[in-house]
Design brief:
10-stranded mixed sheet; 17 strands; about 45% helix; 22 helices; elongated; single chain; 7-stranded parallel sheet; 2 domains; UDP-N-acetylmuramoyl-L-alanine:D-glutamate ligase; alpha/beta; Rossmann fold
Length: about 500
């Protein structure tokens, strides 16, 4: 966005003052929408940069409408310059002089104003923050957050890193954030998303070709995108038209993982489901998923895939349009060797999940140096840690870049699960999902995602598109269920029942 702003101003000669006026007007309009007829005090806290300049535009427009407004500045007024300085001067012409907040001031009056205001406007740091806020500003944030009032943040809540959602020591908790032209990554990823409140994106009239010229290759997954991916079934289709999936899953004590993935695949529209499971759980799976064709392998608790069984899998895979491997499969050296062969020889999409990811571990060069077709891995942060050697904390703080780098390096699609699941593809594109809720943080939820993803991939949906659509459908199914049962009452079995409802809401039937 910084480069887009620069290009618009320097190359397209769009005045920065005009962009600032448009941005401030959007926030002013939102304030007017929620004000009562007897408007009380509006407090606007401004920083030094363009974010502060937006705040001065907002305050001026409120004052021109005779709405009581008080303005605070977090920097000495003589340091204001550029477009922010010009808008500060315009505010002075109305007889409104900001109160300067500095470490030498007590915050009693500020606290009193915040508690007696109707709305607080946070126009302090914006996207420019790169280091931890000082103790005085932490106290300012504490007062804003503790006021109990509606807080509107301009572009991004102050204290949140715009590139990664990191909290720089402390941050404003907004009721609503009004972001301009494009959403900021920090408003989408956690923990920043937790501080953002309702997120609105407002167009400030930057030309479309400026945005396209500075394409970040980062996208939010929305329903319109998914609607273009998942199509209604043809009225005269038969099961062969709707894809054939081979799901390799389960072990003794983990039959549930294979059952959950299988049921989710069926709810996602697969025409024919084959499930390769150990002999020891075959009866359980056959009874639990009667729609599936079972392929029992071996006679032990986990897979001991010798050459005979590997040939059975490869032969079964040739008859299918996609293969998924890993849910509840357990760990064995024999399976690791089998997985290596599958990655190399299978020509269609291969979805690699759970213990199949753990079998790869830090040996990506062994498994991905030669791949036969589209490969999709679905790690949670712990599994991504084992793949990369990075700590879970590092991964959670840098989800986008880590997923993108791993995807580009090995030529595979990475679905990095968690709050705000990230889909990264080898072409450098990154997609962030915003559906889902904390109730989905329960055992088996990942197995359901594997079922949805592998089912869509088997229905001849291109691998990247299947990954994008599946995480959206998965999260939306969770949102439907949570709306009925509450987040605490959400179970994985409920989640499966929400899959079909989720898809219907997107495609219409």
């Amino acid at each position: 966005m910084k480069e887009i702003d620069r290009t618009a101003i320097e190359d397209y000669k769009i005045p920065g003052l005009k962009l600032m006026e448009t941005a401030g007007t959007h926030v002013y309009d939102e304030i007017i929408k929620v004000l009562d007829e007897d408007a009380g005090l509006i407090c606007v806290i401004c920083g030094s940069g363009n974010n502060g300049g937006d705040g001065y535009v907002i305050a001026r427009k409120l004052a021109n409408r005779f709405i009581p407004v008080k303005v605070y500045s977090t920097v000495p007024l003589e340091k204001l310059s550029g477009d922010a300085g010009i808008n500060y001067e315009k505010l002075l012409e109305l007889g409104i002089r900001p109160v300067v907040l500095s470490s030498s001031n007590k915050l009693d009056d500020f606290k009193n104003d915040m508690e007696n205001s109707d709305i607080i406007v946070d126009a302090i740091f914006g996207t420019g923050i790169t280091r931890e806020v000082n103790d005085y500003m932490k106290a300012v944030f504490d007062i804003i957050n503790g006021s109990g009032k509606k807080v509107i943040s301009v572009d991004i809540p102050s204290g949140i890193g715009a590139d990664d959602g990191v909290v720089y020591g402390a941050a404003v908790r907004a009721s609503k954030t009004i972001s301009f032209q494009l959403p900021k990554i920090g408003c989408i990823l956690f923990p920043g998303a937790e501080y953002t409140g309702d997120l609105l994106i407002k167009d400030i009239k930057i030309p479309k070709d400026v945005i396209e010229k500075n394409n970040s290759q980062m996208y939010v997954i929305d329903e319109n995108r998914v609607k273009k991916i998942i199509k209604p079934k043809k009225r005269d289709s038969h099961k062969g038209d709707n894809g054939k999936l081979l799901l390799i899953a389960g072990s003794k004590g983990m039959a549930g993982a294979s059952v959950l993935a299988g049921k989710a695949a069926l709810k996602s529209g697969i025409g024919l489901l084959k499930m390769a499971v150990p002999q020891s759980i075959n009866d359980i799976v056959q009874i639990s998923v009667p729609e599936a064709v079972c392929l029992p392998l071996g006679d032990t608790d986990t897979y001991k895939l010798n050459k005979t069984y590997i040939k059975e899998i490869l032969d079964a895979a040739k008859e299918c349009t996609a293969v998924a491997v890993g849910p509840g499969i357990g760990r064995s050296q024999d399976f690791s060797k089998a997985l290596e062969i599958m990655i190399k020889e299978l020509k269609g999409p291969l979805i690699i999940d759970a213990d199949a990811i753990n079998a790869i571990g830090s040996r990506a060069d062994r498994f991905f140096s030669e791949i036969g077709g589209d490969r999709i891995i679905t790690p949670h942060p712990g599994e991504m840690s084992r793949l990369t050697g990075l700590s879970i904390q590092d991964i959670n703080q840098n989800r986008v870049n880590i997923a993108r780098e791993y995807s580009e390096k090995w030529g595979i699609i990475v679905v990095l699960k968690g709050a705000r699941t990230v889909v990264a593809s080898p072409d450098g594109d990154v997609y962030i999902n915003i559906t889902g809720n904390p109730g989905m943080a329960t055992g088996g939820s990942g197995d359901v995602l594997t079922g949805i993803l592998s089912s869509l991939a088997a229905q001849n949906i291109e691998a990247k598109a299947a990954a994008i659509a599946s995480v959206f459908v998965h999260g939306k199914a969770g949102d439907f269920v949570a709306a009925q049962t509450g987040e605490h009452g959400l179970t994985t079995s409920d989640l499966i029942n929400g899959v079909g409802i989720s898809i219907k809401s997107i495609i219409g039937r």
